[in-house]
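We modelled the chain as a single entity of 294 amino acids. Its sequence is:
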Amino acid sequence: MKWSLDQLRTFIYVADLGGFSRAGERLCLAQSTISWQVKQLERQIGTPLLYRTPNGVTLTEKGHAFYLRAQKVITANDETELWLSNNFHDRQIIRFATTDCYASCLLPSLLEYWKCQFPNIKVSLECSFSTDIWSRYKDDEFDIALAQHCPSDINAEPIRVESLEWVCARNSLACKQNPVPVALFEHGCPDRDIILNSLKGANRDYRVEFETYSYGGLVAAVESGTVVSALPKSTIPSTLKCLGSHYRLPRLPSLNVSLASPKKSKNDICSQLYDAVVWHLGKSAQGLTPEFIQ
């Protein structure tokens, strides 16, 4: 599932201003265009985001959860564009690749640090599943790559062992259902295969209710309370709870997170940025104690 930044921005304006016409006036777009963009977004997500009344619109419960995620995406994008638009001379372009989970959780603080410490670089960010990242890394498409499931033939540094945890919304009873309803990343994500193989190996009945390419979309689906999923421990937001071992959910294996840079020893900027990623990963690991529900 993919949506555009324009769709997210339009949805935020509609929610903030309470109506399609007012959002259209602010964005200089026809009301029909605004309405169509929001309907397309709702179709992609598979649930209404707004209550529509003669007096305007208000957010549904799921719409509010998605609104918070959309705000973070737009804010991170705007801050990145502002940073990259600064008129630095002789800027070096660094091609950085990571998964959507780590980009959503680590990128804002990492970009802030890079902005202060390395003002003369331009970052080109690529978010994808780890298998795609490592395949393209072999083709020399990236200067720095951070992802799980690194192939043995790539010279990468294992910098973290990340537990994969079952999660659900705090007041959700989805974990008690049989078959258990699950939300997953789309085909191509190794974590998807790990989750499904673990359920099959434990003879736990399940049904796939939601699929997406987006970390924000997956979190929004779980926050709805209708599904469970699994996420790397450091990427679990405070709106979700970690499930213990009493819901017939199988124990999931840990993930080896690796960092690689073919230019680390040859390029001083790459080396410094590489070290900054290691430092931020260590910092983000401090104090991470998600609540586990037994």
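As a brief sanity check on the tokenised model: Residues 61-85 form the longest helix (25 residues). Residues 287-294 have pLDDT under 50 and may be disordered.
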